[in-house]
Amino acid sequence: MSTATHYENANFLRELAESLPRIWPNGTPARTELLQRLADEELAQAQHSEWIRAKVAAARADTRPTLTTDEVRASLKARYERLRDASR
């Protein structure tokens, strides 16, 4: 589902929650709260999708050279040893 769809759903659910007492006078406040909670969840999904898309875009735009697994291990091992030696 797209981010825009999540925002549309959240807006629809909020509007429905606001209109519910007029549409269904015998409805309970629990139903309005449920609609508000569902709207909050849709909004959270939209924000999460935007965050993920930003992270992916940043990763794709990263121009640093790629490292092999062995290079990463060697770098981490050297860092660990420096930190270990510094704490002694």
Mean pLDDT across residues: 92
Strand content is under 5%
Largest β sheet strand count, sense and barrel closure:
none
Spans of at least 5 consecutive residues with low confidence: none
Q: How much is the radius of gyration in Å?
A: 24 Å
Write the layout of secondary structure elements.
Layout: H1 3-23, H2 29-61, H3 69-86
Helix pairs in contact: 1-2
Structural commentary:
The protein has 88 residues and is an all-alpha fold. It has helices at residues 3-23, 29-61, 69-86. The longest helix has 33 residues, at 29-61.
Task: Give a quick summary of the entry.
The protein is mainly α and 88 residues long. The chain contains three helices and no strands.
Features:
elongated, mainly alpha, 88 residues
